[in-house]
Amino acid sequence: MNQQDEYKIKIYLASRSPRRVELLKQIGVDCITMPADIDESQHPNEPPITYVLRMARQKAEVCLQQLGNASTPILAADTTVVHHQVLGKPVDNEDARRMLLALSGSTHEVHTAVALAFNGVIEVALSTTRVEMMPLNLAQIEAYVDSGEPFDKAGGYGIQGLAGAWIKHIEGSYTGVMGLPIFETASLLRKHQLFTL
Q1: HSE (CB half, 13 Å, CA atoms) of 8?
Q2: C-alpha dist (Å) from residue 56 to 39, 84, 134
Q3: Alpha-carbon span 171 to 184, nearest angstrom
């Protein structure tokens, strides 16, 4: 066994996001993906932070019910982009254009909640990052929409992809904007003796 194997653990990840899988691998955590299909509608007048915390918890609960084994660690996460309102994943090209125009030349917030279900307890942690995007022209927006990148991402962009060239400044967690804040995730795992680093 090499040194890296000594701290490797395996968990279930309530997500189909390849970015979250890669971020877990970065810290030596292997996972089995188990997407949680839930109603992701925001409740009327529900604050964005309340919403994202509820989504992460519900994803963990759904996977816990499917597994029926409280001793298996389950990690879930949810990310939302907020600029005056919650910006979810674009439903079509026009929706993606609308979101990118709204974010252009402004600062928005990205909230990512992480939930860990383990030994009968679900704990949730929150990461909030302020992101400043440069002003975009219509040609840039059109080229990005044509790339197909916006469509599985909250707010219609991914900081780890082509849109990374537009991000002037962030205050907070880069990995949180990607969809899984590593610090908060590791802290939850460490608290339950599932991670030693």
Answers
A1: 10
A2: 12, 22, 30
A3: 15
Is the model's pTM score more than 0.85? yes
For residue 79 the two structure tokens come to 């990310």
- Distance from C-alpha of 169 to C-alpha of 32, rounded to nearest angstrom: 34
Cα separation of the two ends of the chain: 17
User: What confidence tens digit (pLDDT) does each residue in 124-153 have?
Assistant: 999 999 999 999 999 999 999 999 999 989
Return the active site residues: 78
Could you tell me which CATH class the domain 4-191 is placed in?
alpha beta
* Other C-beta atoms lying within 10 Å of the C-beta of residue 95: 17
Domain ranges in the chain?
Answer: 4-191
- Can you tell me the distance from the alpha carbon of 134 to that of 172, in angstroms, rounded to the nearest whole number? 18
Query: Cα separation of 78 and 138, whole Å?
Result: 29
CA–CA distance, 158 with 79 (Å, rounded to integer): 12
